[in-house]
UniProtKB/TrEMBL annotation:
This is Low-specificity L-threonine aldolase. The keyword rRNA processing does not apply. Homotetramer. It comes from Pantoea eucrina. It is an enzyme of class 4 (lyase). Its EC number is 4.1.2.48. Keywords: Lyase, Pyridoxal phosphate. Belongs to the threonine aldolase family. Its cofactor is pyridoxal 5'-phosphate. Residues 3-282 form the Aromatic amino acid beta-eliminating lyase/threonine aldolase domain. It comes from the Bacteria. One of its GO terms (molecular function) is lyase activity.
Length: 334
């Protein structure tokens, strides 16, 4: 199977599995799992934050991030297409009574600064209290420029807001810009790091911030069911990923760029390509037929009028060459 639906579909390598099976473990709820402690310390070091906390999922890490920043009746400003607004089941509103204030993304994936300012509520009993700006980096594969992050950071300091970055694919942004994670993290109060996307672990995300914030988050993690016991087995995969799978993200970016060129040459409309994601236009009349065609040939695609294709460590240039050949054959028989 050539699976290009997402970079969440990767399977742990033999070396990662070996690290997991030989991991030293304790009980993380009692704070005595040494491998979890090592992973959290490494995430804190890489991000330049004082502390980090390990979670089973990115959705829970984002939820706890919002719960730790906002009280009931508070509000966070967020992108209309952001994961922690649109794709995480409304958890902040349902479980935290936190009101989202979504605004539209600019073409480059950023939230326009003037629209952020316009969305901030006055300090008035009629309104929810605006407490947080949440950004996503990368957003649909698009990297937020450091210059924009600096401006957003200054905006939040002026308006007494916290700034959180949903960094599910933040190392894609790091690699694309040839910078360190600290270069991004200096412009936020908190950030999440997903280990189970491009970094290739089976599960796991991290939340990074200052020590007092992470202690608050630890309580929320327990309350939302994220306290794990011998979690070092999972944390070992995360440590392996941070040590071995960050720099290789450039291969995914290069493969996505190459695939975009090949699809364009085949007459397929590529709408855009950034980092490890391509978005391809598929005529409505071809959607179902293309999906069936690819499935029959062992290719998993989330086919729609706009089809997202995601490269990752479990697909190589040979796999992508096969994808192009299958697509060309599909078009020939239409």
């Amino acid at each position: 199977m050539i699976d290009l639906r997402s970079d969440t579909v990767t399977r742990p390598s033999a070396a990662m599995l070996d690290a997991m099976m030989t991991a030293e473990t304790g009980d993380d709820v009692y704070r005595d799992d040494p491998t979890v402690q090592a992973l959290e310390a490494e995430a804190a070091r890489l991000s330049g934050k004082a502390a980090a906390l390990f979670f089973p999922t990115g959705t829970q890490a984002n939820l706890v991030a919002l719960l730790s920043h906002c009280q009931r009746g508070d509000e966070y400003i967020v992108g209309q297409q952001a994961h922690n607004y649109k794709y995480e089941a409304g958890g902040a509103a349902v479980l935290g009574s936190i009101q989202p204030q979504p605004i539209s993304h600019a073409e480059d994936g950023s939230l326009p600064l003037h629209e952020i300012i316009a969305a901030i509520k006055p300090d008035d009993i009629h309104f929810a209290r605006t407490r947080l700006l949440s950004l996503e980096n990368t957003h649909h594969g698009k990297v937020l420029p450091l210059s924009y992050l600096e401006q957003a950071w200054q905006l939040t300091r002026t308006h007494n807001l916290a700034l959180h970055i949903d960094g599910a694919r933040i190392f894609n942004a790091v690699v694309a810009q040839k910078i360190a994670l600290t270069d991004i993290a200096r412009y936020c109060d908190t950030l999440t790091i997903c280990l189970s996307k491009g970094l290739g672990t089976p599960v796991g995300s991290l939340l990074c911030g200052d020590s007092a914030y992470i202690e608050t988050a630890r309580r929320w993690r327990k309350m939302t069911g994220g306290g794990m016991r011998q979690a070092g087995i999972l944390a070992a995969a995360g440590l392996y990923a941070l040590q071995h799978n960050v720099d290789r993200l450039q291969e995914d970016h290069d493969n996505a760029a190459w695939l975009g060129e090949q699809l364009r040459a085949a007459g397929i409309e590529v709408l855009n390509q950034h980092t490890n994601m391509l978005f391809v236009k598929v005529p409505e009349a071809q959607v179902n037929a293309l999906k069936a065609w690819m499935t029959e040939r062992g290719v998993a695609l989330s086919v729609g009028p706009v089809t997202r294709i995601v490269t990752h460590l479990d697909v190589d240039r040979t796999d992508l060459t096969q994808l192009v050949a299958h697509w060309q054959a599909f078009l020939r028989q239409r």
